[in-house]
Amino acid sequence: MKKLLILLCLVAIVTGTQAQTTQGTIVATGALGYTTSKDKDPNSTERTFRYNLSPQLGYLVTDNLEAGLTGTFDKYHYRFENSIDSQEKEHFKRKATEKATGAYLKKYIFLTENLAFSGTGDITYQHFTETTVQDREQDGSRHTLYNSTYERELFIVAVRPGLSFFLSNKISLNTTYGTLSYTVLAIEQETWQQDLLNEYEDRTKAFTLNLTSSSFFLGLSYYFH
Predict the structure, then answer these.
(1) Three-class DSSP category at 144
(2) What is the CATH number of the domain that holds 49?
(3) Name one Pfam family in it (predicted).
């Protein structure tokens, strides 16, 4: 992270590009991810599938002050099948979906003509669901060994420092690192195992300072007027 920040500063010193952060500019930012894998041996098969979409649309309400909306959709599937013998198999499935929406305000403070420090404040609502099922197939019939449903709602108010390096007057490379946040978390879970049903609920509120790698973000933005 430190090497990246130093590199951006050095590049900014020796290059010059007029940034497009004037009032009335529209900013489009987004990320799209897709992964899939399959592992197979004579007795088992493992499959993983995941895709995510994270669009963001902003507007410069005044020079160097951007306001906008964000969204996230993330879907994950995992399946594992294991043959114990010719008559018996075990199946494990997990599915997860996350949806999020939010609003943000971002301030640019230019250090050079094309390198700006940014401070972003945002409010986000996340909803996450996950189901896990494990069952056994024997002599052509199946019975459930384990079944779990997990649901999480999360409300976040956060501030994030960062840098924006303008590759041209329309494209910037953005990075943030570190998050100070206030979160309200609600969890509900139902688990069925060995004919027993367990229910769990929890509500928490917390202030958090996150300086781990999970707070690091790198992306591109496009500016048009």
Answers:
(1) strand
(2) 2.40.160
(3) OMP_b-brl
